[in-house]
Amino acid sequence: MPVKGRCHCGAIQFEVGEMPAELTSCNCSFCVRRGGLVAYYKPGQFKLATAPSRVWTYQWGDYLVQHHYCPVCGMGTHSEMPGFESGQPDFDNPRIAVNARLFEDTSWETLPVKHVNGREDW
Ligand SMILES: [Zn+2]
Fold it and tell me: Between 20 and 30 A from 113 (CA), which of 34, 38, 44, 100?
């Protein structure tokens, strides 16, 4: 069942194909400050429901990941990145990391959370 999400002010709204099986919490220098709980999707499972021009983007480090956020209320909404399953960037298998804290009318709080040590691994 599709799940809708939105930033605090509603300027950015989106939909994902289904609830994830688990969420990811990362402690890298970016994620620990953003504070999101991430659900990973393939690009076809994520749909922006508002104009792309409403979405602002932050990049840092190796500039492989586009971290999107709302310029009005500041919520980090989603990030676009290549796959990293092999340890190297895989541009043929991109992923969207969605901040599951923005899901509406769901019980994401009950999902298991996988902790990734991005502080040392990234
Ligand atoms: Zn907003």
Answer: 44
> Residues of 12-27 as b/e, b for ≥16 C-beta within 10 angstroms?
bbbebeebbeebbebe
Pairing mode, if any, of strands 23-26 and 113-116?
parallel
Mean pLDDT of the chain: 94
Work out whether strand 76-83 and strand 66-69 pair parallel, antiparallel, or are unpaired. Answer: antiparallel
Fold that domain 3-121 belongs to in CATH: 2.170.150
Q: Is it the case that residue 117 has pLDDT exceeding 90?
A: no
Assess contact for 11 and 1: CB atoms under 8 A.
no
**pLDDT for 122:** 60
**Each residue's pLDDT tens digit, 60-114:** 999 999 999 999 999 999 999 999 888 899 999 999 999 999 999 998 999 999 9
Q: Please, which residues have CB less than 5 A from ligand 1, an ion?
A: 7, 9, 11, 70, 72-73
User: How many whole angstroms from 19 Cα to the centroid of ligand 1?
Assistant: 22
